[in-house]
Write a structure and sequence with these properties.
Order of helices and strands: EHEEHE
Number of strands: 4
Radius of gyration: 14 Å
Number of helices: 2
Shape: elongated
Strand order of the largest sheet: 1-2-3-4
Helix content: 10-25%
Largest sheet: 4 strands, mixed
Distance between the termini: 9 Å
Oligomer: single chain
């Protein structure tokens, strides 16, 4: 039976909650990804997606920090879980 570890990416882009939103967006564009994991040390704080950045741009808050726009408590799965 296949497990998540067989299919997952290992080189995930990370940002700190204090990082400027524009900087995180530039890193996402540079890596060609639509989301970045927001880490506070070893703790997952949330995920910042293209949609989160679009919301900030729509209200003119592009000078914000990642923490102001991230999606908190994203659903996660363990690498040892099956793909079923």
């Amino acid at each position: 039976m296949s497990v998540i570890a067989d299919h997952m990416s290992r080189e995930l882009l990370q940002a700190s909650p204090d990082e400027p939103l524009a900087e995180a967006a530039r890193h996402m564009v540079g890596r060609g990804v639509g989301a970045v994991l927001v880490m506070d040390g070893n703790r997952l704080e949330g995920i910042l997606t293209e949609r989160d950045i679009l919301k900030a741009v729509a209200v003119g808050l592009t000078e914000s920090r990642v923490r102001d726009w991230l999606t908190r408590n994203p659903e996660t799965i363990d690498a040892s879980d099956t793909t079923e």
